[in-house]
Design goal:
The protein contains two helices and 14 strands. The chain is mainly beta and about 180 residues long. The strands form four sheets. A four-stranded antiparallel sheet has the order 1-2-3-6. The chain has a four-stranded antiparallel sheet with strand order 5-4-7-8. The longest helix has 7 residues, at about 70-75. The two termini are about 30 Å apart.
Length: about 180
C-alpha cells in the first residue's frame, strides 16, 4: 500500500499482481468534488493507458474509486518497465499524487538524470523553485548546504513534461546564485 497526500486528502493504491485498486481517503471536514486521474507510463516516457473518474471526497471515508486490470499491459511491456501515476485534483489544484510500481525498485532500470530547477527570489530568504525533468525521477530530495531551511515539499516524484513548484524559506538569506551553488 502506498500513501501520499497534500493536506488532508490521500490517494492510495492496493497493488495487485496484475493491476491496482485505487482508493481515496479524506480527513477534510468539507465534502468536495475531485477528479481522479491515472496514467500507466513506460520508463522510456511513453504513456500506455490513461483514464479519469469524477469522485466525491467525504470526511472519514476510504472509498474504492477504481479497479484497473493491467494484465495485458504488464505482459506486453514488463512489470519492471512501467509505473502507474495517480493524481487527485480538486478545485484548488493538486490534492494528492502517487506513483505505483509493479516490481521491486532494485529490478527496475529507472532513468538517470538531474532535474532542472528555476529559482525565483520572492523576498529575503524566500524563494520559489520550479523543478522539471526530461525523464521520470523518483523521490527527488533537495538539500541546501550551510543553512537551515523549510520547504513546502521535499520528497516528490518528477514526471516528464510536468513541473513541480516548491516554496523554500532559508534561515539565512542568500542570492539566487549562492542558493544554486548550495543546492
Amino acid at each position: 500500500d502506498v500513501l501520499n497526500g497534500i493536506g488532508d486528502v490521500l490517494v492510495c493504491v492496493a497493488n495487485t499482481m496484475n493491476g491496482a485498486e485505487i482508493y481515496t481517503v479524506s480527513d477534510s471536514v468539507e465534502s468536495m468534488p475531485a477528479t481522479l486521474r491515472w496514467t500507466l507510463c513506460h520508463l522510456d516516457g511513453k504513456k500506455l493507458l490513461a483514464g479519469s473518474n469524477k469522485v466525491r471526497l467525504r470526511y472519514g471515508e476510504s472509498v474504492l474509486q477504481k479497479r484497473l486490470d493491467l494484465t495485458r499491459a504488464l505482459a506486453t511491456h514488463g512489470r519492471e518497465s512501467v509505473y502507474l501515476r495517480l493524481e487527485l485534483v480538486g478545485r484548488r489544484g493538486l490534492l494528492s499524487e502517487n506513483t505505483v510500481f509493479f516490481s521491486a525498485l532494485r529490478f527496475m532500470d529507472l532513468p538517470r538524470g538531474k532535474p532542472v530547477v528555476r529559482i525565483e527570489r520572492r523576498s529575503p530568504g524566500r524563494f520559489k523553485l520550479v523543478f522539471r525533468a526530461r525523464a521520470f525521477q523518483h523521490m527527488v530530495a533537495v538539500d541546501v548546504a550551510g543553512t537551515g531551511f523549510r520547504m513546502s515539499d521535499n520528497w516528490f516524484d518528477l514526471y516528464p513534461g510536468t513541473s513541480r513548484r516548491v516554496e523554500l524559506t532559508l534561515d539565512r538569506d542568500c542570492t539566487v546564485a549562492q542558493l544554486r551553488r548550495r543546492m
